[in-house]
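User: Before I run my own analysis I want an independent prediction to cross-check against. Here's the chain; please return only the structure tokens and, at the end, one sentence I can use as a sanity check.
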Amino acid sequence: MALIELKEISLHLEGKPILDKLSLFVEEKSKVAVKGPSGAGKTALLKVVLGVFKPREGQVTIDGLLLRPENFDALRRRISFIPQHVSVFEDQTLKEYIERPFGFKNNRAERPSRQALEQALSSLNLPEELLEQSMYKLSGGERQRAAIARALLLGRTLMLVDEPTSAIDDQNTDKVSDAILGNDELTVLSISHDDRWLSRCDFVLTLEDGRIAAPASE
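Assistant: Structure tokens:
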């Protein structure tokens, strides 16, 4: 069963063609990675699935729902997105960053216990002592792992991930891969150039000139 289905997607940004009649199927609980040269449209592809970019042609279906404005709220309650670069507010602590989504009405029932929070941090090699640390003082890799911890705690089963290990060393790449790719309940669509990450995905797709060029089973 395809949890994500893109049919004949064409996308132009500022008059430039980015995606060209691209079709993609992501089965439920599979781990799919997209790689390709800079400028090929990889991040744009994720933003189409998120509904940030509206394609010129084609349609997107997620969990049986068409990606249309009237379905955005329902769909976004099913999806976690982890960006490559984590934006933070001034003087925001790690604890405040992780807890922020749970202040919204739709997520209040999912607020994690202290034990669940500590377990999520431990699984990603983030010491509990960092909870009161300013996000500004954390390294790029620590911020990435904080974003992953927050996404995992939200408990959504569809995860979109943009270069999850770009600022993370080898040891912590294994931790991140275990947390995301080792979770049998997650469906994952990721962008990555990291061979260690790619080697653990079920399928690796190459995006070139706006099209899927060479799918390969890993």
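Sanity check: Residues 69 and 202 are 31 Å apart (CA to CA).
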